[in-house]
Amino acid sequence: MHIGEAIADALATEADGPIFGLMGDANMPVWGALVKAGRSRLVPARHDGAAVLMADGYAKASGKLAVATVTCGPGLANCANALLTAARAETPLVVFTGETEPHGKGATQYLDQRRFAQACDAHYHPLDRLDSLAEDVAEGFYLARTRSQPVILNLPAQHWEATLQFPWDYRPSGEFLPPHAPAPRRELLEDLARQLAAAKRPVLVAGRGALQAGVREQLERLGDQVGALLATSLLAKGFFDGHPYDVGIAGSFSGAPTERLLAEADFVLGVGASLNFFTTEGGLLFPQARIARIDSKPHPAAIGVAPGFYLQGDAAQTVGELAGALERLKAGNTGFRTPATQEVLKSPPARFERPDDGLDPRALMDALGRGLPAQAQVVIGAGHFWAWPSSYLALPPGGRFHHTAAFGSIGLGLAQGIGAAIACPERMTVVVEGDGGLLQAIQELHAAAELQLPIVILVMNDSAFGADVLKMRWKGRDPQGASWQSPDFVALARGFGGEGVRLDKEEDLVGALAQASAHRGPFVIDARVSPTTVNDSYAKLYQGRENRAPLLRPPAGSAWKR
Fold first, then answer.
1. DSSP designation for 452
2. What is the per-residue pLDDT across 377-389, written as a single tens digit (0 to 9) for each?
3. Residue 402 belongs to what domain range?
4. Who's near 443: CB < 8 A, 6+ residues apart?
5. Quick check: pTM over 0.90?
């Protein structure tokens, strides 16, 4: 058997979905074998990094391991940003590639890919022994599944056209996985129950892990037992929508009532939430609180994660057992469940003056929330604009929210959105991206058009790298280099094979979404937003708390609900 056929068999066996990639010399035999076998759907990107980003988006939206393949040297080097983003997001992802020799014909494209992988926080896994190839490939996939980080499978050039001299027998990595997360340690569980029962003002913060485990009802019951407020990380936005003690997002996108209440917390329990720098506002959001976490993974050593009590275990099992332990302790504090708390939560929404130099991004998010159908998923890129959907967008029933900012890079929204749309074809997928970010990846519109992928791209267009313009002005510098005359994004979309509209008014977005839903292919909505309207989180960081407008979280059903 040709080695390309063997590796193609392994990739097709492991991939629970499509394989994303861009073909080149190093992966050409494997790509050809995948096409010939027809066992896997191949999704070709227009840029190597976009292939990895598509896989990352697929994994986040589906909850499955994702597979990508790119060529060696320059191809893999193009993936640095995507690999770091996936690594920081703890995405289970395998990238198959090859590696040329540092001399001879392939020297021009040589890259020390082991060191490159280390720099990208990815695991380098060589496939340099033919006699153990099947075991080595399976081990790479096992590491990706258990470590929740990207793994690079690296085939040296001397093996690209090799023929295996023995029968190919591949056992997938899933056969070696433990059946479930380890049960929580009994003594730690009892200790956590005592701490929670003793708390006077507890808060439960649900994260991506709680969302994926579907433990809303269990956490609400737990909150009832101890009188806790219910909050979420950004990735679990909307998880507790409709609950009377839901305070929305904890962290950089919290409103003033949420900040006021969380400042009084004396105990914060994160469930499937890292409680990182942004969720805790650098530790300032919970100044009086002890911190505890429940997570299915072993205790991490992640930078920026709040220290404190840690309990490893499956979310549903651990929360259920914790509730039982609290019952045995006869826990029943009032906690935050008081009329005073409700008065804070019923604070009227802040009122803002409408800008006169473009569309109001707050009103635009209100229209987006009204126009999204049930179960829609929203993928947002990074930049100054991303605070608007994070803070002001109300998700529809069953909606999902994804962001691309794990590494703080712009330009990733479109490719990740394509992966998410492929993962969940039953959901409308809306990518909210800045004009500068979209220009960095606009070639992927062609990939989406060729796939006839129904994906909506809402461009928050301020004709600039908005964050840089604001920072330069605040620092007394000329922001000219960060601004431009906007291209015609609708014409660009049509040139790539898509369609689109330019908005004249914020409320026109509802009709534009309806128009987009009837189009088979990418649909770009160009929203020329005010370039001078500063988002709330930037106002807090750069303009000082004493100068910012009050950020008020309105009652359920308001147009400004977060």
1. T
2. 999 999 999 999 9
3. 361-547
4. 46, 47, 50, 496
5. yes
